[in-house]
Design brief:
Blueprint (H helix, E strand, L loop, with lengths): L2 H24 L2 H8 L3 H5 L5 H25 L4 H10 L14 H9 L4 H27 L9 H22 L3 H15 L7
Length: 198
């Protein structure tokens, strides 16, 4: 990395949690300057505008979440293990892997009516994750680990939607118990389709 690239990465790492906690509209340039201890001119040498900064921050946070999910699932050998690992990423919403909670939830609501480009990006990421999870279930069926009557797409959709909703409920109420209960329910449902113990 060049010095300029290192500085840009530093800005991203310092500013991303602020964007995730305060949102795009709620984060100001002054917030970023305070976090990075940079002058405005130095900041704008690396980013043309707040819009560019916001786009990069969202990408960075979504990449971080995707890498966490992919890494945790990759350490598992079975479909059940991979899906449990995915669910467990959301297990502690008050002390989540990413400061401020799930960026899909945080930015998804905000960009829905305000930023078509970011909305499309998030749509593609959600669809890609759901496709990956669905493929894991289908592979589990092919491997005779999971019963063929599991609705792969339906299970993935309701799990994804419920985990995002559970994140909201847990953070608003200040309790992880809602998410734990939700994940326990989905794990129990998935276990009911398991045919073999690997």
């Amino acid at each position: 990395m060049s010095k300029g690239e290192r500085t840009r990465q530093f800005i991203i790492e310092q500013a991303a949690p602020i964007f995730n906690q305060k949102g795009i509209a709620g984060t100001t340039i002054d917030d970023i300057l305070a976090a990075t201890k940079m002058a405005k001119g130095g900041l704008y040498r690396h980013f043309e505008s707040k819009d560019e900064i916001a786009t990069v921050m969202v990408e960075f946070l979504l990449d971080k979440l995707s890498a966490k999910i992919a890494g945790d699932m990759a350490r598992q050998q079975t479909a059940q293990g991979k899906l449990f690992a995915y669910m467990d990423v959301y297990l502690h919403p008050l002390t989540s892997y990413i400061d401020g909670g799930c960026p899909v939830l945080n930015f998804g609501v905000e960009v829905d009516d305000t930023n078509p480009t970011l909305k499309q990006n998030m749509k593609q990421r959600i669809e890609r994750l759901q496709k990956t999870l669905t493929a894991i279930i289908k592979q589990g069926i092919a491997d005779q680990e999971l019963a063929a009557d599991i609705d792969a797409g339906g299970f993935v959709l309701k799990t994804f939607a419920a985990l995002e909703g559970g994140m909201l409920v847990s953070r608003v109420t200040g309790s992880d118990k809602h998410m734990k209960n939700l994940i326990d329910m989905f794990k129990a449902e998935l276990k009911s389709y398991v045919l073999t113990k690997k």
